[in-house]
Amino acid sequence: MKTPIHIAVTGAAGQISYALIFRIIEGDLAGQDQPVVLHLLDIPAAMKDLEGIRMEMEDFASPLLAGVVSTDDPKVAFENADIAFLVGARPRGPGMERQDLLSVNAEIFSVQGLALNEMAHPGVKVLVVGNPANTNALIAAKNAPNLSTRSFSAMTRLDHNRAVSMLATRCGCSVADIRQMIIWGNHSSTQYPDLHHALVRGKPALEGVEEDWFHGPFISAVQKRGAEVIAMRGKSSAASAANAALEHMRSWIMGTPEDDWVSMAVYSDGSYGIAEGLMYSFPVRIRDGDYEIVQGLPIDAFSLERMRLTEKELLMEKEMVKHLF
Ligand code: NAX
Whole-angstrom Cα distance, residue 179 to residue 204? Predict the structure, then answer.
């Protein structure tokens, strides 16, 4: 058995974490030979729930579980963290404007950024799931000056998976036949799911589906899928979100296949003319635990317009929280 790795999960008493934690201790994230110490963070009012979850983790009797730390203190949660899933966030309450949501979450993520800076392993990999995920990730990164901005990312993998699944259904093929999907930009209704580079059984997706379907129903369905799930369940996506969080982190640790990439919101470096210093979703390839933004993809006018629109939203969000940097 290897030395245990330390994995922090925030919002640990919430519904996404409930679906995530047990998959981690089953070995779905880091493998069947990798023991884990789980650090569970939530607010003081949720400590009793965390105790119940800890009891269930014991009852799993997983040989991979090397310890559980339950806490309401971010510094304890992030101590020696190799991996951090920042899932916990305040949901939008009645009468709350987007600015209010951004402000209240901005404070949570600045505190967590500072704690990561002080306590985490220098090579920590951080995934922000809690919304507004991209800008929360930026705030955490800006409050962690000792860590590389490349340690921080936000989740668009659920959007990526939704887009893959919808394309497979349209083509009457398996999701395993799809390669090179891209989600550009923000995890919000401005995100741009792009089929120009996608392959279905090795052939360009746009040779097999109509442009009208791509430009209209497909883009809109991916953008609105989260809201549709809420309308049906009365709650936001949980199992699919937990699965996407797990896959995002597993890709980051294990790498991407030779013939594919994944979508990940990462600190923009000016690639594709996107403003530097935003957490923007790009196609990335990963080797040896390190990601590279896929370069050199041709971008047409239709795509550019949509990539700019979602960039504009992220620039506005950044402007609203810049006092916390
Ligand atoms: P829940 O409301 O079930 O759980 C959130 C948990 O976070 C609660 O236990 C709460 O006490 C905790 N929390 C609040 N403030 C905290 C703080 N300062 N420190 C630690 N914990 C804190 O939400 P859930 O359904 O699990 O969703 C979590 C977040 O994921 C939400 O912000 C949600 O909007 C976001 N999502 C993001 C997705 C993405 O693709 N990026 C998709 C799914 C999901 O909508």
Answer: 10
